[in-house]
Specification:
Strand content: 5-15%
Number of strands: 2
Number of helices: 3
Bound molecules: zinc ion
């Protein structure tokens, strides 16, 4: 076994990553202090969730696989 020589480990825990808000594209910080991460604000966070939810509800449920018929347990 080789001894791991990863000196960068630990540095990432304190580092603040600069990202872009997935909702509005505003530069924000991905850190523990940012409660809305990876979004820039709570509004963007909830707004994205709402969009995601509505998208989910918009999908028609037509893909119903009949596993019951295919899984007959005949003894
Ligand atoms: Zn945003």
């Amino acid at each position: 076994m080789k001894p791991s020589t990863n000196h960068r480990e630990g540095a990432s825990s304190q580092m603040e990553l600069s990202i872009k808000c997935p909702t509005c594209g505003t530069s924000t910080t991905y850190s523990k202090t940012n409660e809305s991460r990876p979004f820039c604000s709570d509004r963007c966070k909830t707004g994205d969730l709402a969009a995601w939810a509505s998208e989910l509800y918009a999908v028609p449920v037509a893909d119903k696989s009949s596993e019951d018929e295919d899984n007959q347990d005949i003894d």
